[in-house]
Amino acid sequence: MKKELISELFEKFEKARIVIDNIECWSARDLQSIFNYSDWRNFVKVVDKAKISCKSSNNDVSDHFVDTNKMVGLGSGSKREITDIALTRYACYLIAQNGDPSKQEIAFAQTYFAVQTRKQELIENRLLEVERVKAREKLTNTEKILSAIIYERGVDDYGFAIIRSKGDAALFGGFNTNDMKLKLAIPVKRPLADFLPTLTIKAKDFATELTSHNVEEKNLKGTPSISEEHIENNKAVRKILLERGVKPENLPPSEDVKKVKRRLNSEELKLLKENNKKE
How many angstroms separate the CA atoms of 144 and 140, rounded? Predict the structure, then answer.
């Protein structure tokens, strides 16, 4: 997510924020607009899911979702009253968790309402961490898909490890998986991808998806032919990176993605605990 969009969304959520009886709140109608839901009825469905989540967490729904009304202007210059819902930070967080994750506004809101601070730079950092965790999870799923495909074509776990290592060598300019672990001081028994930056994780994911597609498209079988396909796909991805001035083997390692994920989960747990203390 670009910094310009983060700044824009941060300002929108801050402007929409109101304080009622010393409790910060947001209007559901305002969130509907910010989240780019054109139809109120569709947005209410998301709100209803959030209410269920609220109740499942042993919280009183009425403490976080308060029915109210709002005056809106009409084209004629007159005004009319429409239904609205006053939402606490926790309610907004639940709505974001139940919203369409493909919407960038929803992805931003999940962090904005989870972080117990309104400093933009901290929200930016957390969004980057969320993106990296999601990229790592996607690579895991992509590799599982490839593993399943090639298993049916005569490649066992040992063969898959060989294919993946040769692919890494192609992507990292001759450094295979173990070479890169040594170069980046990564524990031998830990996956290389757990310590790679987001860009490299996504590069590996793209090359792996290409291999899965082409193995089926070309009806490849056996470790040698599939390995060659994976090498060529990683070389192609590397070529793109080099053309953009990026040498993946020279990028510094990132924090253990498992630690990052635990920290993100801890922040969300803290939000839940803080909310329960207010009950």
Answer: 6
Cβ-based burial of 16 (10 A; exposed 0-12, middle 13-18, buried ≥19): middle
Classify residue 69 as exposed, middle or buried by CB count within 10 Å of its CB (0-12, 13-18, 19+): exposed
- From CA 237, how far away is CA 7, in angstroms rounded? 31
Please give the span between the terminal C-alpha atoms of the chain, in angstroms, as a whole number. Answer: 35
The rounded distance, in Å, linking the Cα atoms of 30 and 186 is 47
> Which of 90-123 are b and which e, b meaning 16 or more Cβ less than 10 Å from the residue's Cβ?
bbbbbbbbbbeeeeebbbbbbbbbbbeeeebeeb
Assign 118 a pLDDT band (cuts: 50, 70, 90).
low
CA-CA distance, 239 to 171, in Å (whole number)?
9
Q: Do the Cβ atoms of 7 and 1 come closer than 8 Å?
A: no
CB 195 within 8 A of CB 257: yes
Sign of CA dihedral 197, 203, 204, 205: positive
Sheet with 23-27, side-by-side order of all strands: 18-20, 23-27, 79-88, 65-73
State the residue for tokens 């991808």: 193
Q: Which of 269, 271, 263, 273 is nearest to 128 (CA)?
A: 263
Residue type, 239: K
| Distance set, CA 31 to CA 115, 122, 156 (Å) | 18, 22, 50
pTM for this prediction = 0.70
Q: Is the separation of the CB atoms in 150 and 159 below 8 Å? A: yes
Q: What is the pLDDT of residues 124-139, one digit of tens each?
A: 788 889 899 999 999 9
Q: Which amino acid is at 62?
A: S
